[in-house]
């Protein structure tokens, strides 16, 4: 990976400053986000500058609403890989803490962007806000930039062919509705859950369906149910499968799990990190009056998943 990750804005070396940057949370790195990154890229090329992204960890929403339901669309590692794939040179993953939360918009622009990062240009979305109370706007940032020595380009709203905004909120709405085609269209790739394979209750093995168990952590909860999946293993292989995501109504798990049955696969993946694309939503969660009935449904789900994956591969 050629992306350099920088985790603070203070005491940076001159070689780490002076970039043209896109600024935002960039949770999902969806098509709307990519328009902002492309605007920064255009200036970077014109002025022969490094291309950077300025983001925050934790997500400001998590800082201000620590008890809020999980909402993330990607892990930090997934974001880094997505940005690396877009040719971004630097990710400034700034620590969002009490000091930053209390900063005025002017202080953020002058001290962090103009001072610590010494940026040369900032591209931001049309609805970008920053500073205490979200008081800053793209217009305010442009004014501060004149004083601090950087230029600003606001990027207009990006809509799809039907006039719907390409946003992280729209992705979450699609996932909650089980509309994986729409989520994929906004993201530009399937929504994927990355995590360590953990030990479960191993009930699946008793019916010939061994599954990988992955905790959802801070990922938002898509519609609970059964999905056609593709899983990338630590060794680089991609394996088709079918997965149950939720609390298993027959057993009522305390925390929702992603349980993936990999087709035509035999191996021990405990402790390894895998990434699973949720390609298509097949059906909601259901209860069954017997294990035999469950086995029949699993076979039907597997057939439906294979069909959905074949269709997506040909799309």
What does this structure look like?
The chain has a six-stranded parallel β-sheet. The protein is α/β, with parallel strands linked by helices. The protein has ten helices and twelve strands. The protein has helices at 31-47, 60-64, 76-85, 98-101, 105-116, 138-148, 168-176, 180-187, 203-206, 291-314, and strands spanning 4-6, 20-23, 51-57, 90-95, 121-125, 151-155, 192-198, 212-215, 225-232, 238-246, 257-262, 273-284. Helix 1 links the parallel strand 2 (20-23) and strand 3 (51-57). The relative contact order is 0.12. Helix 5 packs across helix 6 and helix 7 runs antiparallel to helix 8 (180-187). The protein is elongated. The chain starts with a strand and ends with a helix.
Percent range for helical residues?
25-40%
Instruction: Give the percentage of residues in beta strands.
Output: 15-25%
The coarse silhouette is elongated
Average pLDDT metric = 92
Rg calc: 22 Å
Number of helices: 10
- Poorly predicted spans: none
What structural class do helix, strand and pairing data support?
alpha/beta
Note the run of SSEs as H and E: EEHEHHEHHEHEHHEHEEEEEH
Total strand segments: 12
Oligomer: single chain
Strand order, main sheet: write it out: 1-4-3-2-5-6
Q: Report how far the terminal alpha carbons are from each other.
A: 29 Å
Q: Main sheet, how many strands, which sense, barrel?
A: 6 strands, parallel
């Amino acid at each position: 990976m050629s992306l350099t990750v920088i985790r603070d804005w203070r005491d940076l070396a001159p070689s780490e400053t002076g970039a043209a940057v896109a600024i935002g949370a960039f949770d999902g790195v969806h098509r709307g986000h990519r328009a902002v990154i492309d605007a920064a890229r255009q200036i970077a090329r014109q002025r022969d500058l490094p291309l950077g992204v300025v983001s925050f960890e934790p997500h400001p929403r998590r800082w201000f609403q620590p008890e809020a339901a999980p909402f993330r669309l990607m892990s930090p590692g997934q974001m880094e890989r997505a940005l690396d794939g877009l040719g971004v040179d630097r990710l400034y993953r700034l620590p969002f803490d009490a000091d930053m939360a209390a900063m005025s918009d002017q202080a953020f622009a002058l001290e962090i962007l103009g001072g610590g990062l010494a940026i040369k240009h900032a591209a931001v979305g049309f609805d970008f806000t920053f500073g205490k109370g979200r008081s800053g706007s793209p217009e305010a940032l442009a004014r501060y930039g004149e004083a601090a020595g950087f230029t600003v380009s606001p990027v207009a709203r990006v809509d799809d062919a039907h006039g719907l905004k390409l946003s992280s909120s729209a992705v979450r709405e699609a996932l909650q509705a089980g509309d994986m085609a729409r989520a994929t269209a906004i993201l530009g790739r399937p929504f994927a859950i990355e995590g360590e394979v953990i030990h479960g209750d191993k009930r699946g093995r008793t019916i010939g369906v061994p599954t990988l168990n992955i905790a959802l952590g801070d990922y938002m909860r898509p519609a609970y149910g059964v999905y056609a999946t593709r899983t990338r293993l630590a060794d680089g292989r991609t394996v088709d499968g079918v997965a149950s995501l939720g609390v298993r109504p027959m057993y009522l798990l305390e925390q929702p799990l992603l349980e993936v049955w990999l087709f035509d696969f035999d191996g021990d993946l405990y402790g390894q990190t895998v990434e699973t694309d949720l390609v298509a939503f097949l059906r909601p969660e259901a209860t069954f009056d017997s294990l035999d009935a469950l086995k029949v449904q699993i076979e039907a789900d597997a057939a439906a998943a294979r069909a959905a994956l074949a269709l997506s591969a040909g799309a």
